[in-house]
Each structure stands twice: as structure tokens, then as C-alpha cells.
């Protein structure tokens, strides 16, 4: 590890990848260190921007931003910056031939979509692959719910019985269907990813097209698990929709995250066009700082410590499960910079009795200024060239707000942009 | 083995299943999450083994992708060793696990006869019956091993020395790469010592279930390497799998040996050279009269065992610093071979499926050659794509020595 890079990003979740790409597109050299593959491997692939604000469903999420607390990352950045970040992400996906767009209301304003999950519940989400026909979803009368034999995770009967409980879906005419498995009897339960990977390849795609043929033209809408390829490839979509003879909507699925892999694929493809280096299987232990700057991070890799020097740093290490935050009774700190995160001494206060409630542990995280630089208790910037992004930030609750990927994109973009500027300033000195 | 790994750090997030090339290629494999941590819980209770354990290629993409640092592949290898204690592995697996020993036994036979003996259609049919697929690209023996050749190499009298561990592939099949490495180290101002006493790192033995042989090789190597380490000499290897074995696997598999002999980490030779470039010891200016070499377009494949080391891709970085060379990172996952895995009859097709994305990228790249640090990856790439392939250090030498 000899080269001093402009921007060093820690973490390869959505926030880390967006930060890396933002900095790289500004002409900066970028190195990304990662433990594991990041949460996109378990993501459904749509972008939740803001599903609920102040416990109310947000149909127009932009309108609902004002209801968020002042220290929420969106509020810190300001609506205009969040818009620019989303535009950056959408443009990137457009260039990668995997457009991600919001559904539009009658008056043309973007709004949240209630997308069905394979559990038959509805989840508000914002950016969807453009191939998902939201108009058809809203208006379809005859709906076919499909799964595949051997795909235990998706049971059409459950989807139908659950969906019928929602007013918007109650009076539709549902049919259930089970496609034959292209694998026959298998040693393990198959997943949507196994099937999507078959659909990736033109030579094995035919199984899905053939399986859909008996249903073609008989329905207004087909709901199915994510089977239309594991890569950001619109060709697969066109073929599947043509074979179905009606719009196909993929329901949000549990891991493995087929949809998330499409996003990861697109972002990495974009990154590899730049001066970008991915260092896998390494864990950052701590940062080395001098006065108001960070000079390097120390990482552990295959039993040895390595120093990674850079001009600016983005930390997108995730939350408690992702390893970005470390908890002990009465204490919490971020794993790289060891910034203390204030928490009550009494750990019983960290959670709520309501399991689906807004728990303190899901809002814990590093406090930053509007440029995503961590601040101390007196709101003073700790280091000039360190920026945080994604779930390691405090002040938002992705689980109750349904805002995880949205915050990752917005703060990743902001952190990447600011890190690029800090690196440019550092280079001049 | 003296320590078992706690499987309970696994939260069953399935990230490893997503990135397992074998699970992608065949539904016959239960997948890393199930075979590794989930079955480990059964194993600790003394319950039976899952029959698909043998499909694990030990490529370590599960370890690379795990967000919680669970060494999934090690769980699999330990389970395989346990299984082979009860049912000994067959002759085929012995042969594939002991390439170095075989080469030693056959040393007195000239390579041309050896290769005729090993690679002719009759032998291939016999090997095929034994379980080594006749389509598999078995590498040919070199006329002389790297270590035999090294005895006659005249090196400049540099003050600084570096110890080079060639690894079996370079020693037995590909001495050219070893000589290129010596040339590069010499150019960087180091005399190269190639100890005769070092043996195979043991990775092929582990992968094929010969735990005790791997252990005795490990003990032999650690004892020998300890002496060089204590003498203050850097020990490097150009082979990612050997490096990974010494760095990560040996301390995990045989913690008592690691305690007894201390850490013996092989440094990555490509990183060593890159550092030499940075410090000014190694010049990347060409020696030849023709400074305007034709441009060279390459495609690089990162071996899984290199990615698992968390060391980045120093070989790629080195190539990118050469004048007139453009290198595309294929970034297409595993090549499928995993040492000897892809030679096995019941796994040949899986290995070809795993490598197919890489082969297609290599073919479509328009590159003049493919580059990778790993010897068997190179064999597999050439077999699958038809494209000639080289170690980065060979490109380095070709470009700098050009006349």
C-alpha cells in the first residue's frame, strides 16, 4: 500500500459506493476498504427515501421533509442538496442502463409507491427500476401472483391473502400460479437469486419465458419474486415482459438481495471506469490523526496491519450490525475514529417496549455538520478532512422512516463531494 | 486441529451465499452459510456431515464477503479433514494434493518423457478413470525445476538480500516466472536466496483432506522460515495461495504451531516490488535502445486468494505504472480452478461454469495477454479463453528489458 490516494472510503454499502463514485467523478483517486460485501447484497433494490415522517405515511416525501427533526441528515444537508444527490444517483443509474425513477402523481409530482413484498405487505418506497410499471400496478384488475416450485420464500397464497386486506388491493381479481422449477429436485431450497442468475444468461433465460407463455395475455399485471436477472440488464426485462404479455412487477424480497445486487453491479461498473481501487477483506482498526486532520487509517488484513494514507477520508462503516458502531453497556462509539456517541447509562432506555417502535439504538450515531464532518459536543468540527455517511450517522431511524438507502445516497454524495474538495485543497498545500 | 471456530458470529445474512461461485454454478452444493456455520453447530453436537461438503472449492469468496469475519472456508476445510479421518480420500485426491512430492519422485525422468507419460491420451484416459477429467488442462512439467535452474543463476553482488519462496507451481511447472522474479528483485537491488529446504505450503493437501501431511509440511516450513525471519531477511512469494496459507490458514488450522514458531508471514512479492518503485530502488524506465515500445494491452485477473488477503491488487498497480501498458481489471470473480478443484471429473464442468464470465471478458477484451499472479488461474484462463497468460513480473521484465 504505497500510493497516497486522494480519497479513502471505508465501507462498500450504498453510502460508501456513492461516496466513492462522487469523489471519483470529480477526478480524484479513490481507494475503498471493505470488510465483507456491504448491505446491498441483502437489499431489495428499490430506494426508500422517506416512507414515514412523524409516524405518518409520506405520499410526497419532499413535502414531508419539513416534519423531520432538525438534526436529521436530510435537514442538515438541506432539500436542494438532497435533490442534487438524488439526481446524481439517478443519472448514474441512467448511464448504466438501469434507470431508477419515482412514480408520478396525476399532476406529475414524484411520489412514494406502495410496493408489495413477498410477504404480501405493502412498503412505501421511492426510486424503482424504471422497468417496474407503477401505473399498471395501480390500475390492474386481473392480477396473477406467481412463484416457482421449490422457492420456499415466496408463497402466492400468502401474498394474495395479505394483499386483500389492503383497501387499494381488496377488490382485485387474484389468481395464483406456480412455475415449474428449472432445476428439478435440488439438494437445497432454491432462492430468487438462483433463478435470476439463470435469467441473466440468454441460453438459460428461456426457462422463464417458456414458463410464462401459458399465462401470456390473460392478466393485467403479474406479481412475482425478483427473477428478472441479477445484473443491471434491461434486456432481460424486455424479454420477460414480452413473454408475460402484461406488465410484470417484482415484489420486494428477502435476502439474498437480487435487486440490491443490480445496484451494486451498476455502481461498481461505473467506479471501475475511474482511478478506483477496491481493497477487500480488510478491517479498519483506527484512524491516525494529527491536529485537525486525519493522515491515515490502520487496517488489519490477513494477520497484519497496514497503513492507508490519504488526503481525505469518508467513513461509511454502517451501524451496529455492520460494525460501524461498537456498543458496551452504557457506552457507544464509532469503530474507526472512536468518537463517543452519547447514550443513557441505563441500557433499558435504549429500546422501546413496542418492537416496531422508534428505538434509541436505531437513531444512535455520529453527529455531523452540514458537510458531514463529525462535530464535538460544542458543535465544533473535529477534523477538516473526515466525512461520515450512511448508517454510521446519528439522528435518523431508517427502520421506522423507511429512509435507509435514501440517506445513504444523500449523505454518501455529500461526503464524497466534500472529501473530493478537501483532497483538492490538501493537494495544493 | 486444536481449536474450533465459533460459528455463532454468523447471523445467517446470506451474503456469502450470494458471492459463492460454486453455489451459483450448481444447486447440488448446499452453500457456504449452511455447510460452514450452520452445519458446524450440528458438528459440534456430533451429528452427521452433509454430503455436499466436498463441493466447497476453498476459493474463500465466503470469507471475503462475510461482514462479520466468520472464516467460513476454514470451517469447511476442518470439517473435510474430520470426514477424511473416517473415510480416507482416494488415490485421485492424494495425487492432486501431492503435486510437489510427485514431481520429486519423477525428478530423474526427463520432462519430455514425463510429460509424454502424463499428458498422452492413454494416460489421460487412465487418469480420467481415476477421477481427473481428461479435458482438464494439466500443466506440463518443466525440463528443470526453478530451484535446479537457480543453482546456475549468476546474481549481482548486492548487499541486501531477500528470501524467495517460489511455491510448487513456479518450482515444478513454471520456472520462467521464478527467474523473472529474481531478475526484478536483482534490479531492485536485492540478492535472492531460494532456500532448498522449504516444501509445499500444504494448501493442496488441506483442500484434498490430507490434514496430517499439511501439518508436517507446515511445521517443517515454519521452522525453516523462522530462521530467515530471525536473521531479519524479508521473505516474499509471488503466489497468492502460498501467501494466504502462511498468513491466515496455518495460524487458524494449527494454532499450536503458530505459537511454537511465531508468525511467519510471506510478503507479497508484487507489493515488495511496488514499494521498491516508490522508494526509488526499482526503476521502471526501459533499458533497451528502443524507448518507443509498441503499446501493450492487457487484461488482469485478481486471484481469489489474493483478494482474500486484504492487500489490494499490487500486481495490477505495478503493471499500471509501466509506460505504454494499459491494463483492464477483468473483475469477473473466480476463474473456477481453485488449485486442483477444476481438474476433478465431478467438478470440471462446475469450474468451467464458474470461470465462464471471466473467459468471456478475457476473450472480448481485445487484450494481447491475460495477467494473473496465480499459476493455476493462468492455466484455467488460457484453457477457457484461449488467451496466453503471464505473471505480472514477466510483463515487467519484458517491458523493461526490451531491446
Describe the model:
The complex is a heterodimer of chains A (429) and B (403). Chain A is of the alpha/beta class and 429 residues long. Chain A is 31% helix and 23% strand. Chain A has 14 helices and 20 strands. Chain A has helices spanning 14-25, 61-64, 73-77, 79-95, 134-139, 156-163, 167-170, 192-200, 202-212, 234-244, 258-271, 360-363, 398-401, 404-428, and strands at 5-10, 30-33, 52-53, 56-57, 100-104, 110-111, 113-116, 122-125, 127-129, 142-148, 173-179, 221-224, 248-250, 276-279, 283-290, 293-301, 304-315, 325-328, 331-334, 386-388. In chain A, the strands form 6 sheets. In chain A, strands 1, 2, 14, 15, 16, 17 and 20 form a 7-stranded mixed β-sheet that branches. In chain A, strands 11-10-12-13 form a 4-stranded parallel β-sheet, with helices on both faces. In chain A, a hairpin with a 5-residue loop joins strand 5 (100-104) and strand 6 (110-111). The longest helix of chain A has 25 residues, at 404-428. The mean pLDDT of chain A is 94. Chain B has 403 residues and is α/β, with parallel strands linked by helices. Chain B is built from 22 helices and 8 strands. Chain B has helices at residues 15-19, 21-25, 32-44, 61-65, 72-86, 91-97, 99-105, 111-119, 121-130, 146-150, 167-173, 175-187, 203-207, 211-230, 240-253, 255-261, 269-278, 304-307, 314-320, 348-364, 375-385, 392-400; strands at 160-164, 190-193, 235-237, 267-268, 296-300, 325-329, 369-371, 389-390. In chain B, helix 3 crosses helix 5 and helix 12 crosses helix 22 (392-400). Chain B is globular. The interface between A and B is large, with 44 and 44 residues.
